[in-house]
Amino acid sequence: MEYLKAFVLGGILCAIGQILIDKTKLTPARILVMYVVMGVILGALGLYQPLIDWGGAGATVPLTGFGSNLAKGVKEAVREDGLLGVFTGGVKAAAGGITAAVVFGLLAAIFFHPKDRS
């Protein structure tokens, strides 16, 4: 049942993104930023945690989950370090994901030899 919930929630988030691409003039990059910002806002307000509790990876893997993770990291760092936590908390919380993105991007560039489109 856990997998089904993750699939449904992740699918809904992806379907909303696809509808935004198809029905609006928003670019995928703007939708990406909008998803991260919505995750930060919902995470900061405590409204994203119930989605994580219900949908598991269906809520944490998409970009909204990344935003929520940033908000959670900032909250914890502000509680521990005060104002300095505003600047360090998000990076600490998302360090694993950021590192993985950099490493896998580097590996893809090394093994697949990207070229310009022109």
What's the structural blueprint in terms of helices and strands?
Blueprint: H1 2-23, H2 28-44, H3 49-55, H4 57-60, H5 63-81, H6 85-112
Task: Report a brief summary of the structure.
The chain has 118 residues and is mostly helical. The chain contains six helices and no strands.
Question: How would you describe the overall organization of this protein?
Answer:
The structure is a single chain. The protein is mostly helical and 118 residues long. The protein has one domain (2-112). The chain contains 6 helices and no strands. The protein has helices at residues 2-23, 28-44, 49-55, 57-60, 63-81, 85-112. α2 packs across α5 (63-81) and α5 runs antiparallel to α6 (85-112). The protein is globular, with a radius of gyration of 16 Å. The mean pLDDT is 91.
